[in-house]
Specification:
Layout lengths: L7 E8 L2 H11 L3 E8 L2 E10 L8 E6 L12 E8 L5 H10 L8 E3 L2 E7 L5 E6 L22 E9 L3 H9 L3 E6 L2 E5 L8 E6 L13 E8 L2 H13 L8 E2 L4 E6 L5 E6 L27 H7 L11 H9 L2
Parallel strand pairs: 1-4, 5-8, 9-12, 13-16
Antiparallel strand pairs: 1-13, 2-3, 3-4, 5-9, 6-7, 7-8, 10-11, 11-12, 14-15, 15-16
Keywords: Dioxygenase, Oxidoreductase
Pfam families: Glyoxalase (PF00903)
InterPro entries: Extradiol_RC_dioxygenase, Glyas_Bleomycin-R_OHBP_Dase, Glyas_Fos-R_dOase_dom, VOC_core
Length: 327
């Protein structure tokens, strides 16, 4: 293809109880809720977005939380691990922080110069905190809970589990990713200039069972397109290659197209624009339920079906700054 992504845009996963999900990602991991909205295709459930202060592409993990949703199964045909980037000297702090909150963690491991700490969220989603030896220049969200010097910088990478790599590797090449490293049955690819936020690992496990997407698993992985014309050109090239790709869908904060890579994982190409300040100011992101114009006439009915969601005061940047100063 003639177009190449610069890196990850977001990862979207399935969760159970929305309040439990929010408490973990806001208070335990120290991310910011940058948008409280609904699943546009199923407005009876939330779509919760977490990221850095402004919800910049590459910092985002999002959830469809269905209270009482059955547990999924990690396996081939899906993204099995979502990794976040943290400073190199911070993994000890994170280990102590998470253990103190009763979160099960792995021992800190090292692979290809990177140190990593594994954990699971309350629904069992596999997460890794990774310290890249060259660091990560992205700014953290300083929320007064997780000190800025240890804060998550954004997404680091995702791991796709496949039974055979050839077709998946070919499609990653079509998306502009290039081979970066290989260790045994794990192949790493890099987008753009590489580094945290631009990696995808392909884990080849021929005998592993097929994954089941439900609570505690990833629904899809989104890659960045700078604007709508680029996305449209990308869609045309995919269609010309015979890939089953959706029409362009308006997600209010970006435009999206979806398709599956040959190994089975659902992928998305999402535009960087217009961003999360399209319908509320930066200081108020995530604090109120936002609906797209076509769902606004049904606001009363939609709100009646959604459970109450209590956000911590630290989601307000002004208060977060005061709390950080008084630590």
């Amino acid at each position: 293809m003639t177009i190449a992504t610069s890196g990850l845009h977001h990862v979207t996963a399935i969760a159970g109880d929305p309040q439990r999900n929010a408490d973990f990602y806001l208070r335990t991991l120290g991310l910011r809720m940058v948008k409280t909205t609904v699943n546009f295709d199923d407005p009876g459930t939330y779509h919760l977005y977490y990221g850095d202060e402004a919800g910049r592409p590459g910092s985002l993990i999002t959830f469809f939380p269905w209270k009482g949703a059955p547990a999924g199964r990690r396996g081939t045909g899906q993204a099995t691990t979502t990794a976040f980037s943290v400073p190199e000297q911070s993994l000890g702090w994170w280990k102590q922080h998470l253990d103190g909150l009763g979160v099960d963690t792995t021992e800190i491991t090292e692979r290809d110069g990177e140190r990593a700490l594994g954990l699971r969220d309350p629904d069992g989603l596999a997460i890794s905190l990774v310290a890249h030896p060259q660091g990560d220049p992205r700014a953290p969200w300083d929320n007064g809970i997780v000190p800025a010097e240890h804060g998550i910088r954004g997404l680091h990478s995702v791991t796709l589990a496949v039974t055979a790599e050839d077709a998946t590797v070919a499609m990653l090449g079509d998306l502009g990713l290039r081979p970066h490293d290989q260790q045994g049955n794990r192949l790493r690819f890099a987008a753009g200039e590489g580094g945290p936020g631009a990696f995808v690992d392909v884990l080849v496990t021929p005998a592993a069972p097929r994954g089941l997407v439900a609570a505690g698993t990833v629904h899809h992985v989104a890659w960045r397109a700078p604007d709508e014309p680029t996305q449209a050109a990308w869609r045309a090239e995919l269609a010309d290659q015979g890939v089953g790709v959706t029409s362009v869908l308006d997600r209010q904060y970006f435009r999206s197209i979806y398709f599956r890579e040959p190994g089975g994982t659902l992928l998305e190409i999402a535009t960087d624009e217009p961003g999360f300040t399209a319908d509320e100011p930066l200081l108020e992101l995530g604090r109120a339920l936002k609906l797209p114009p076509w769902l606004e006439p049904n606001r009363e009915q939609i709100q009646a079906t959604l459970p109450e969601l209590d956000l911590p005061d630290e989601n307000n940047p002004e208060l977060a700054q005061r709390l950080a100063e008084n630590r």
